[in-house]
Amino acid sequence: MSTPRVLTYDDYAAMPDDGKRYELHEGRLSLIPTPTTTHQRILGHLLLILVPHVRALGHGEVMLSPFDCIMSTITVVQPDLIYLDEDRVSLLSERALEGAPSHAIEIVIPSTLHVDRHTKMALYAKHDVTWYWIVDPAARTIEAYRLEVGAYRLDAMLEGTEPRALSPFPDLPLDPAAIWP
User: What is the CA radius of gyration of the chain?
Assistant: First the structure.
């Protein structure tokens, strides 16, 4: 039995454009499913909430997928949204983020649930992504995880109808009515 070939960023970058989106998870190519309408609406709502807040802070950057985060030569991901604090903004290059974001946000759909909750969570922890939000449209929740000693711990959750701030944005109460379509 042969060992599968470990792909690198160079292999990933050399792939022909077939109109599909891919990620590289520890050297294995992973197809990213086309987002649903609900996914895209929530993504737009979160972007419209986060960008003005980050701009008002006067530092940091928010980036929208598709945008490569080259976390290693064999791991390239495209979170739905990323936030870079002032310490990681310098990792931006013209081609991609050359490292890990401070904060990754994934909006789960049924076909990505396992990857977002397990595979990508482990990758983000391994590459020192401090904050990870899992946005679940079906449950109408946002789970905010904080990296502590190499593993994520649930820090807070947005659920129900009451606004709540989630780290890393303690001064930004998120109104569920402004997020869910």
Answer: 16
